[in-house]
Amino acid sequence: MTRVVNPTSAVVVAEVPVTSVGEVDAAVDRAARAFETWRAVAPGDRARLLRRFAAVVDAHVEELAELEVRNCGHTIGNARWEAGNVRDVLDYYAGAPERLTGRQIPVPGGLDVTFHEPLGVVGVIVPWNFPMPIAAWGLAPALAAGNTVLLKPAELTPLTALRLAELGREAGLPDDVFTVLPGAGPVVGERFVTHPAVRKVCFTGSGEVGARIMAGCAAQVKRVTLELGGKSANLVFADADLEKAAATAPYAVFDNAGQDCCARSRVLVQRSVHDRFLELLEPAVKGFRVEDPALETAEMGPLISAGQRERVAGYVDGARVAFTGSCPEGPGYWYAPTVLLAGSTAERHWREEVFGPVVSVLPFDDEADAIRLANDTEYGLSGSIWTRDVGRALRVSRAVEAGNLSVNSHSSVRYWTPFGGMKRSGLGRELGPDALHAFTDVKNVFIATEE
Ligand code: NAD
């Protein structure tokens, strides 16, 4: 059994059984058998089942959101968005089975057609920072394409995934089409990698575990998608709407207590407006509402665990603190939003993913300097560019090595558009119109027409 703790109160709220290797193997066998019938379900019927799943999730948004507040300390506002995102992603990919068309390619001597064949059993491994959306981004397109899914939630945050599996059954998904297997990463997750009947692993988590999973998958030439860490830049040019850039910067990094792979945790500000930007940023950070995440007014809750809080504090020790916000005292894993001044790009808090409510600020001189500094990282997940110059916005967007950029906005995730990282932030893309292809293999068939 794993004890599930509410990070706001540090009280145990549930005990969840862990899955053994033998139980994973049995689940893989059942999912492999279910695949044979699921792949044969008519596209319109598969679409209808996914739409029904979305509708059942919609009817339980509030319940799922409250569960996530309890398990993760997410603000109720964010948790509602996350449950709504599961519904939307299921709805979006419900449109896919009936549109999963191949091509007819002109060739001499016959007819050539392509099919997008499902892979089989897909293993989805989810981290603790966004349990609901990340589960949906894997399971919805995988099911739509005709695969069956085994999903392993993070040890700390299994509750909403287990509830989603129940809601899937309530919606009428056939047995063993979507199964949630809570348990340890090195046991359940690792078995997804080593079991030959699991044909793809869809992993979101740390770079260290991701690289290990990729190496394990390589041994079987198993398909793999990796969504890993980030150290994204927020570039503020002197010609930007400085008030708006400063007012929004805290949300781009302190949302979800900074436990966000897309957090804009490096703010690069043009030197001529650097001091003014900090003047504007200070009241925005001090006013950031860190409080009981169940309150409608909460903008940030606690960190996920005592260990995570210790890790985050380790980055602030000895660093130059510009100013901080505030947070409640008490039993939960609270940490106040913190703004650090980076003396150089060598500082640890500037280079490494903190995964907490800590942001580092550094000045830059000109456009070339901004691009150089933004790209001076092993990561490449997301980023923001604040400028009123359209030409510059486009030039910088093309030059920054990151999978998801936004101009005069901090948006990263929209289910209509592809999401994923460059460099060490990942491999492959999720969401958007093409995600289905990551859960299929192309088959080419030539039919001779000559007598
Ligand atoms: P983690 O790598 O420790 O764990 C992620 C998942 O992998 C968990 O379910 C864990 O149980 C499992 N796991 C652990 N060891 C395993 C093994 N040997 N084999 C198979 N599975 C194993 O990461 P975390 O601390 O839970 O999550 C935080 C990290 O995730 C951060 O680096 C963050 O940037 C990243 N992240 C990336 C994205 C993205 O989309 N790029 C999104 C969210 C989080």
The level 1 CATH classification of the largest domain is Alpha Beta
CATH topology of the largest domain: Aldehyde Dehydrogenase, Chain A, domain 1
Number of strands: 18
How does the helix and strand content classify structurally? Answer: alpha/beta
Pick out the low-confidence regions. Answer: none
N- to C-terminal separation? 66 Å
How does the major sheet shape up?
7 strands, mixed
Notable traits:
451 residues, alpha/beta, Aldehyde Dehydrogenase, Chain A, domain 1, Aldehyde Dehydrogenase, Chain A, domain 2, 2 domains, 7-stranded mixed beta sheet, 6-stranded mixed beta sheet, 14 helices, 18 strands, globular, binds nicotinamide-adenine-dinucleotide
Would you mind describing this structure in some detail?
- It is built from 14 helices and 18 strands.
- It has two domains: 2-228 and 424-448, Aldehyde Dehydrogenase, Chain A, domain 1 (3-Layer(aba) Sandwich), CATH 3.40.605.10; 233-414, Aldehyde Dehydrogenase, Chain A, domain 2.
- It is globular, with a radius of gyration of 23 Å.
- It has helices spanning 21-38, 43-59, 61-72, 76-94, 131-144, 159-171, 185-194, 207-218, 242-254, 274-286, 306-316, 348-351, 367-375, 390-399; strands at 2-6, 11-16, 104-105, 110-118, 121-125, 148-152, 178-180, 198-204, 223-227, 233-236, 266-270, 320-324, 338-341, 358-364, 382-386, 404-407, 426-427, 440-448.
- The longest helix is centred in the first third of the chain and has 19 residues, at 76-94.
- Helix 2 packs antiparallel against helix 4 (76-94) and helix 3 packs across helix 4 (76-94).
- The protein is an alpha/beta fold and 451 residues long.
- The model has no long low-confidence stretch (mean pLDDT 98).
- A seven-stranded mixed beta sheet has the order 12-13-14-11-10-15-16, sandwiched between helices. It has a six-stranded mixed beta sheet with strand order 7-6-5-8-9-17, sandwiched between helices. Strands 3-4-18 form a three-stranded antiparallel beta sheet, with no helix packed on it.
